[in-house]
What we know:
The protein is 67% helix and 10% strand. By secondary structure, it is of the alpha/beta class. It folds into two domains: 5-100, Class I glutamine amidotransferase (GATase) domain (Rossmann fold), CATH 3.40.50.880; 133-213. A five-stranded parallel beta sheet has the order 2-1-3-4-5, sandwiched between helices. α3 (58-68) runs parallel beside α4 (82-91) and α6 (149-167) packs antiparallel against α7. The protein is elongated, with a radius of gyration of 34 Å. Keywords: Kinase, Transferase. Pfam families: HisKA. Its EC number is 2.7.13.3. One of its GO terms (molecular function) is phosphorelay sensor kinase activity.
Amino acid sequence: MKQPTVLVVSDQGEFAQTLMSRWHSERTVPAFTVMNSEVFHANAGQSCDLIIVGPVARQRFSALMTLLATLTQPVIVVAGDAVDAMSANSKSARIMVLRQHEGWVDLLILLSSECLRRLEATERAEKAEQSSAELAGQAMLGRYMLDMRHSLNNALTSVLGNAELLLLEPGNFSEEVRDQLATIRTMSLRMNEILARFSSLETELTFAKRDSQREPLAYVRSNAAGWSTF
């Protein structure tokens, strides 16, 4: 996964400095962007994984919370007092509020790290689901090709047989037509090789599936034999 990004919104420079200084002692450190509440805008919030809000000017706090409530990213607000905490909670239940008391930095990093881990897990699950859908589509296409192999082989046999019959009487055709018939025969043989490879792959997959089913059974029998010696 790419390095997570955290946007810190605060009108106090010490807040961001304290947070980043403490976070650098952790094993995973995100990329930080710091801005004050006056220049914050929705587009800035959409480009990060997590938003942390520290102390901001009272006159801009409510408007900032309203704007943050429209975003899809997780938001953690470090409230300096009960008034700010209630204001943040009233805007959206999705906004997490943390009171700025003793030990708040460690608790904030713990909560933030958990949010980022969940985002990473969600991203991995989405990628796995996408890969699974792609593999399912490829498997369906492969199965269709195997199912149509016999029909293609019958049609190909007819084309190849007729081309060879016509080539047995070269005097009936011009040189250009004979060259075209030879090309049809050559390409038909090539297609026949491809279809034969499909059959070989199907056989290999069948044996591989049988072997994978036998291995767990052999392991169980081996353990059972070992247990009987005690």
